[in-house]
Structure formats: C-alpha cells, structure tokens
Design brief:
It catalyses: (R)-4-phosphopantoate + beta-alanine + ATP = (R)-4'-phosphopantothenate + AMP + diphosphate + H(+). The chain has one domain: Phosphopantoate/pantothenate synthetase (Rossmann fold), CATH 3.40.50.12640. 55% of the residues lie in helices and 10% in strands. The protein contains twelve helices and seven strands. The protein starts with 7 loop residues before the first helix and ends with a helix. Bound molecules: adenosine-5'-triphosphate.
Amino acid sequence: MDRTQPSKTWSLRDMIPKNHPRRESLLLREKLVEALENNILVPQGLIAHGRGECFDYLLGEKTQYFADDAEKVAAAMLLIAKNPVISVNGNMAALVPESIVKLSEVTNSKIEVNLFYRDEKRIDAISDVLIKNGAKNVLTEGNAVIPELFSERRRVNKEGIFSADVVLLAMEDGDRTEALIKMNKKVIAIDLNPLSRTSLTATITIIDNVIRAIPNIINYAMVLKKENPDELNYIISQYNNKKIISESMKFLSDRLAQLSKDL
Ligand code: ATP
C-alpha cells in the first residue's frame, strides 16, 4: 500500500453524503478494505463480514434487548473471571482496536491474537494495531495446543487462551468455539448470526455487531466493577442463554412478518 497517499477511509468519509442511509455501513466496509491492504485481514474476512451485515440489516442495525441483556452478563462474567482473555482476529482488529484495548483494561483481561488463517506476519500486523491503540501486552506466541482441533487454529498461548477460564471472541468459527467449551472454558461470543454453530455452543451469545457490543460491555463493566462478587454471581446465575438465542430468532421472524404487513 502506498502510505504517501491519504487514507481512503478519510477520502470516502468526505465523499459519502452525511445523510446517506448506508453511510456507517459503507464506512465500515472501507475500514475492512484498508485492513486487507495492510495485511490485517484476509479476503475471507470480507465475506464473513458480509454475512454479518445481512443479519445486522435484519436486526435493524441496533442493539436489541436480548443483546443488551447478554452484554451485561458478559461484563459480569469477565469481571469475576480469574484469567479472562479477549481473542482477537483480523475482523476485530480492523473494526474495534481501541475498544478491545479499553475492554481489556476495564475488565483486566489479557489480549491474544488468534487467527483462523494463522500467519506470523499477519499476527504481527494485528499486534501492532493493538499496541498503537494503547495495548501494553499482546499475546501472540502459539506455544500450546487446543486438543481436538487439527489445523493451525489449535495453536494458542499458554498464559492466554490455553489457561483462560473465560474467553471473549467474535466472528469465530464453530469448531474452535466447541473445542474451547470442551476444555471447560466459558465462552462469550459476539456473532450477528444466531444460527451459527458458535452462537449455538457459546456460554453467552451476544447477537449484536461487535462495533456496538464491545462499547456496551465496557459501559456495563464500568458500572458493575463497583459491585461485590456475590452480586456479579447472582447476575450470571439468572442468565439463560437458550432463552436469549430464542428471543433473537423470534425478534427476526416478528420483524420480517411486520415489515411484510407494512408493504
Ligand atoms: P460457524 O462455524 O460458527 O457456524 P460461520 O461459518 O457462520 O460460523 P464464520 O464465517 O467463521 O462463521 O464467522 C463469521 C460470523 O461472524 C458470521 O456468523 C457473521 O454473522 C458474524 N459477523 C460478521 N461480522 C460481524 C460483526 N461486525 N459483528 C458481529 N458478528 C459478525
């Protein structure tokens, strides 16, 4: 990429009219294209984003109540964890690097770069973005393995995901989520698709866009930090993930039914 040229995101920011109905969504696409050019993302990441966009469209591009509930409980779970880890991939680093760092600070979570398509250069590029956004320590070395996974995805960090009790991940593949659950970890998954294997296997499923979900978890964590562990455990004990997923599916079908009536 020619770094002497002005960032495309900024030129596009000027080109897309302020009142364009898809302005935010178009700017996000540009962030991802820029991340692709900077070796933070692979082309497959763009396709994964497209699948998410479709669900976000159906969700009204808002944090709905079922996501808000799950985000509050996610904050409580991260705060009470002994070794919470935020697993970062290319899409997350492209979209929300600053929020990842802030969440790790507020909840005292470690940050680990873990990629579906593992590549040392890309790991370094993602780690650099996080450090530029204020991260003090980013785990990158894959010095332990997740049992039952047979690809590069199984390489994780001993002090990070391997020994974590709670792992927050987003836009993740179902096999790895299942493997983490089999290792008795609690998994908080941010995934716009309530039907994905990740959504269906996670401990807490946040059906929301990562760009809204992480800032909302941060807000909850800042409030809940003042509560004692009993209160946090109580919040977690009242949570029913199946109910949350089912409410999200009902919301999608009710919304489509209503929209079809309004035509
Ligand atoms: P699984 O293996 O769990 O069934 P999948 O094959 O659908 O999942 P991937 O393509 O590996 O999943 O991951 C992409 C997932 O991330 C999709 O479910 C997509 O809806 C979701 N996604 C994409 N962009 C975002 C975003 N910005 N915020 C939250 N989720 C997103």
